[in-house]
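Apologies for my clumsy wording, but are you able to produce some protein sequence, whichever is easiest, and the tokens describing how it folds?
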Amino acid sequence: MGDASAGQAVRRFLATIQVGDVCHGTIAAVSRSGISVVLDGFTDRPLGTVRPLDDFWHRCLAETAVVGQRVSGEVVAVDVDAGRVRLSTAATEKPELWTFLKGLRPGEVLDGTVAAIERFGVFVALDEGPEHPVFPGVGFITFPELSWRHFDAASDVVAIGQRVSCEFLQFDTWNGEARLSLRAMEPDPFLVFVEGIAVGQRLSGRVTKLVPFGVFVEVADGIAGLVRLSELSSVPVAAPEDVVQVGDRLTVVVTDVDRERRRLSLSRRQT
């Protein structure tokens, strides 16, 4: 079969598969990068893949899987151009967990208890959810979703055993967990602050950080704006430290408010 006709055959087969389907097949190869699966109904070459992170459902499937072994998984992604179907064995091995996660809707509020704090985020044991077979909790909060305000460590925001209410963001089919947001339960302090701010308005603040392209000035608790290098002085300067230092208090003028990107542009020169 030529390359063109083979590609068409793959596309025709993949067109019959949708995310959420359960596919069966035979393991064709096992490696550190994952497991290749020849799917039932298309024996020309392996189209299914089970990636390494999903192996944790087997407590490292790659160490126990063998070529020729039968495997089943739920389709979590179909890449027609690459000719690949990504499978999750978690869906077939823990159907009660998968059913719970698929039933959640973005914006829904979930309650739980902080189960673990890791360097990459916070695990939450959900009140209404089943236990996770691998992680300390079914819910997971990434660092950016912990708080609107700057913090140095997750332990500055939450503690193990603390009760939390979070907004459900999405079903992470890669890890079989509910991605949550703690900060969504509070109004965005930036948007609250800029409601009363207009371009041209004068503000007073403290320099909190110097960067090559300017300085950041905190004009309210946790709200900082950028004064670009060209707006630091009425005369050209080579570096921000030539004009100001961290801790200096400045009077600045608001030049732009970007609500979508949560950015406040300031000018010292225009004062």
About this structure: The chain has five helices and 15 strands. The chain has three domains: 3-89, 96-185, 189-267.
